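ok so for the tutorial part 2 we go from a plain amino acid sequence to predicted structure tokens. step 1 is just haveing the sequence, like this:
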Amino acid sequence: YCTGWGDPHYMTFDGLYYSYQGNCTYVLVEEIDKKVDNFGVYIDNYHCDAQDVVSCPRTLIVRHETQEVRIATVEPNTVNVEVTVNKQPVALPYKKFGVHIYESGINCVVEIPELKMNVTYNGLSFSIRMPYSLFGSNTQGQCGTCNNNTADDCMLPNGNIAQNCETMADHWQVVDPSKPQCSPGLVPTNTPDVTTRQPCQEAAICELLLGSVFKPCHDSVNPENYYKACIFDSCMLPSMDLECSSLQIYALTCADQGVCIDWRSHTNGVCPYNCPSGKEYQACGPTTEITCKSSEQNATTTKQTEGCFCPNGTMLFDHSVDVCVKTCGCVGVDMVPREFGEKFIVDCQDCICLEGGNGIVCEAHECPEQNNTSCDGQGFYQVKEVNPQDSCCPIFTCKCNTSLCTATAPKCTPGFEVQTSIPSGQCCPVYECVPKKVCVHENAEFLPNSSIFIDKCQNCICTNDVNPSTQLNIISCQHVPCDVTCQEGYELQPVKGECCGKCVQTKCVIRTANSSSLILSPGEFQNDPYNNCTIYSCVNIHDQLISSTSEITCPAFNEDSCKPGTISFLPNGCCKTCTPLESSTPCSVREREDFIVYNGCRSVDRVVVTECEGACGTFSLYSAESNSLDHTCSCCRESKSTMKEVVLKCPHGHSISHKYVYVESCSCQDTECSISQSEELETIEENDNTTTLNRIRRAISSSFK
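step 2 — the prediction. this is what the tokens look like for a chain of 705 residues:
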């Protein structure tokens, strides 16, 4: 047989070893004299290092008559492969038109029983076994001529013998549309030689080939060439662990000679082999595993190989159904082992595992009737869901899809935010503007306890208290602290543009003779509390308050000239007056200067005022004829007067014009005396009082002079 492995290394049918690094598709085996229609084995290599120096196998191709089998590596440097026939993926085992493809341990095997040959490939190595009786001296290609003579193993397509097989291998290119750079007849490539490289650190696992692990096989298969290949791979591709392929192909060759070696456990994890769940690795398993359907046929098989096998106590159900079972019942499309008589549901069919026949008998699964589900309400729609009690019988329910809702969220005013809620039993959300528990000023929001600027005269803060009508937090403001204390006579009045007012004088403050204080408003007069002869006043002149003090000068008063019991004070409480004993003053005009006061307004200066004063002839004579008193009455009155005008100043600063009567002349004028004696007495008393008042006025007016 012919083998190849690593990057890659070849062992011809006659046992000649060489390495070749081409990256095209090459002939491994073809017939020299074509006896079998469209027969051959080919290898597709690719550069598997970063420098594009060395190559690795990618696809093994077997052609036989109408079929082309391709075994391709799924991942580089792994034993994971996939199989296609005429470019179509197939499941294993596969048997058609004289070609049988199956798995044996870690290897994929292509067997052609008619030719008594088989080809194995696992992604890292291949082997081609052909009977000498059918193919002796009739093979050509990179596997050489099968005639037990290595001298002609490096034969070229034209029949000549190349100097070495590395040169020969280049000439066995075939046309590959996926590799336009490759074509038969190209100048041979220069083959890298490990001896020309710098000395490298040899991988320790290569020593296993010469050591005690593989010693039981040394007499059957010489490990020297495999050791050379291992060293070559460790030097050329030190990071890819390709050394494992040399140990693997040597162990496979030894197993073919009946010597099984459990070698992977000695590599310290460098060359692991992981099995899928439910299977376990065996270094020396059967080449064809016992199954429920072929146990007797394979009972006498003695050849062994490494791979993943069913654990002890279980067996493979069938080569086409890769499931380990404890008892040989049924395995359906769900790949679950079933015992005879077991009922189960698969693909929504009610099935039972029966012994004999097809094994599994199924019928359609029946579902109970369901009530019609009506999905009313906005946003709801009907969906079909998996029934947790019976996955084959879906249930219809109503689902909510908010994208079907038409309501949109409103735009809330400052201090409010949209709150979304979905009432129970509904799909579409309900939107509502709810207070955010903040204060709002000029469309700006403020959190509780934060300061708010309203104006410079107030310190404002957002409180936690809520206004029930607006549902917003209340803004509490305090005026900037001001000195609000003003002295007597002054009042605090606001000032435009200022936070705090200022003290403005609104009243006059007058110190009396005894150091007490009097506060008078403009236009107000008041006597001294302890001296009625002193009068205080307050006036507003050109927005200035001016206080004045006036002393009443009383006229000379002689109590001896008064009628007894008639002495009294004038209304001002300062000057005395009385009824005189007699008066000989004639009726005449008397002048005096005084302030004129009207409705709180007063003349700025004293003005001359006149009045009539004096005695007139008034008497009573006894008449004998009438036996009564005859009365003759005369009164001192104005005989001529005019109206004069004066300007008065009012308390608030404005002025008014006022007219008053000015007496120019006086005379005694008769008047009737038809009154009773008592009335006469009263009239006399009133006249006396009037005279007294006039005297008081004159006294007051003289005090202002």
